[in-house]
Automatic annotation (TrEMBL):
Keywords: Hydrolase, Signal. Residues 1-28 form the signal peptide. NCBIfam families: amidohydrolases. GO terms for cellular component: cytoplasm. GO terms for biological process: folic acid catabolic process. This is Amidohydrolase. InterPro entries: Amidohydrolase (IPR017439), Bact_exopeptidase_dim_dom (IPR036264), Peptidase_M20/M20A_hydrolases (IPR052030), Peptidase_M20_dimer (IPR011650). Residues 217-304 form the Peptidase M20 dimerisation domain. The keyword Signal applies. It holds the Pfam family M20_dimer.
Length: 530
């Protein structure tokens, strides 16, 4: 792997890692003057954070179709002095915004896409869609860029007033739910000059982590079968059914599943099953996510899929090819940066929830059959630590993993959602345009701003981060892209869905010139419970 341009200079710095990794009990409780100034600068932008959060929530766009979201965010960044490169990696809704000059270069990222059929009125503790059947932010991705941009603007202001050098970049995770873009950003060199990445993701907790050993990496593969059409009743013997191949492949995958490792997750849908029953389908496809805990096992699972596709094609006298729609490496987060972030999280503390906030949370938890403990009020005692790979039994994926293997990276999880909701579900949208989310993103922005300032002004922190990256993370494991050279971003995904729903959803876009909050615009009494 190419040597990072900052590494050589960092190795010459005096290493004060002992201070960076000091036990939490030894840390000062009171914020420094710089920390106080940054926290105040974020608080001063609380209204801006609420408007941004509610605006993106109202767009509710799916992956690769985040047109309104990207237009809104890039215009805001340009108004604040950032230079924006749009359409990066050949993706119309992807961009990278840059402000400042010189080293170090710190990048802030977060996802911006929504979930199908997740439309939900915020502040309502039961299923009540804004537009029935439409997509929505049933994962909370409307909030992460708010955390990043508010933090960046607070730090930018301080840098301008104090003549500090350094560069801030902001970028979106487009189509994260399809795990479909970050590996292309890495392949196309957008992280080659970056010294550290601070990622943000919504949570009901306030924490971060280092190391790996949680969740899965994956490759997203669509198998396309090609046959010959015929009259389904008149002369079906003249046809070769691509749908038969799809069904046989799925049967083969399901029988093989019993003999796969417990860590794997293999699941799929049929995006094309033919046109109508009386025509033998000449074209059909099946789309799988193959998830495993490491690169080698992901590749093995993918090869099994290819072998089963070959068998299905032989049995049906059809042909096949495949399309990679996305990929994600298992993540590995940076220990020194995570520990610094956790110090800042402790300094910021959990938001102060109101009685109404807790009422909404408990009512939704009751509706879902979850533990009715309400919103969390206490921080974790320590940063979440990595664990040995052999203990990882699999789970979800995030293509921030690819970024984490190119440059020291962490994910800030900020408390803007309700514990006990279902992932990728309407219930995860209930809090996301309410005071719960508004308070959570401000808290997250404070921790993000403090850590961004640490990275910009403390060479020893970056030295420690790259030492961990070189001597621990990548010592025995090197990044090998899952993407093939011929693979291209699947920018066509979700186009038909958004073409169907966008005209209806436009009527519900947030108008901050008329309404203080999106709750007010929708006429929702907060909280609304059964």
């Amino acid at each position: 792997m190419q040597t990072h341009p900052l590494r050589a200079s960092l190795r010459a710095c005096t290493f004060i890692g002992a201070a960076l990794l000091a036990p939490l009990s030894a840390l000062a409780v009171d914020p420094t003057p710089v920390q106080k100034e940054l926290i105040a600068a974020v608080d001063a932008r609380a209204k801006q954070a609420q408007v941004m959060n509610d605006m993106i929530f109202s767009f509710g766009e799916l992956g690769f179709q985040e047109v309104e979201t990207s237009r809104y965010l890039t215009a805001l960044l340009e108004e604040n002095g950032f230079k924006v490169e749009k359409g990066i990696s050949g993706i119309p809704t992807a961009w990278i915004a840059t402000w400042g000059s010189g080293k170090p270069v710190i990048a802030l990222g977060s996802d911006i896409d929504g979930i199908p059929k997740a439309s939900q009125k915020p502040g309502v503790a039961y299923h009540d869609p804004i537009v029935k059947g439409a997509p929505g932010h049933g994962e909370g991705h409307n909030s992460g860029q708010v955390v990043n941009i508010v933090a960046a603007l607070a730090v930018k202001e301080y840098m301008e007033e104090n003549g500090l050098k350094g560069t801030i970049k902001i970028w979106p995770g487009v189509a994260e739910e399809q795990l479909a873009t970050k590996a292309y950003y890495v392949r196309d060199g957008y992280f080659d000059d970056i010294d550290a990445v601070l990622f943000s993701h919504v949570s009901s907790d306030f924490n971060t982590s280092w190391g790996g050993g949680y969740g899965n990496g994956m490759v997203s593969v669509q198998y396309n079968f090609h046959g010959e059409s015929a009259h389904g009743a008149g002369d079906p013997w003249r046809g070769r059914s691509a749908l038969d191949a799809v069904m046989l492949m799925d049967v083969g995958i399901n029988f093989r599943r019993e003999h796969l490792r417990l860590q794997q997750r293999t699941h799929g849908i049929v995006p094309d099953g033919g046109d109508q029953p009386n025509v033998v389908p000449s074209e059909a496809s099946i789309w799988y996510f193959f998830r495993e805990t490491d690169y080698e096992h992901i590749k093995q699972l993918w090869e099994i899929g290819d072998d089963i596709a070959k068998g299905a094609a032989l049995m049906t006298n059809t042909t096949w090819d495949s399309t990679v729609l996305g990929s994600a490496w298992p993540w590995h987060m940076n220990k020194p940066i995570a520990e610094k972030m956790f110090e800042n999280i402790q300094l910021v503390g959990m938001p102060e929830w109101s009685k109404d906030d807790q009422k909404l949370a408990k009512a939704l938890q009751e509706d879902l059959g979850s533990d009715t403990a309400g919103l969390k009020t206490e921080l974790a005692e320590k940063v979440m630590e990595g664990r040995p790979m052999k203990e990882n039994m699999g789970g979800g994926s995030d293509d921030i993993g690819d970024v984490s293997w190119r440059v020291p990276t962490i994910t800030l999880r900020y408390p803007a959602n309700i514990p006990g909701t279902r992932g990728h579900n309407w219930s995860s949208a209930v809090a996301m345009a309410t005071p719960i989310a508004h308070k959570g993103v401000v808290a997250g922005a404070k921790a993000q701003a403090l850590t961004l300032m640490n990275l910009l002004t403390e060479p020893a922190l970056l030295k420690a981060a790259w030492t961990y990256y070189d001597d621990v993370q990548t010592k025995d494991q090197k990044y090998i892209p899952l993407l093939r050279p011929e693979d291209k971003p699947a920018t066509f995904l979700n186009e038909e869905i958004m073409t169907q729903w966008r005209p209806v959803m436009k009527d519900y876009y947030y108008d901050p010139s008329k309404y203080d909050t999106y709750l007010e615009q929708l006429g929702i009494d907060y909280p609304t419970v059964k």
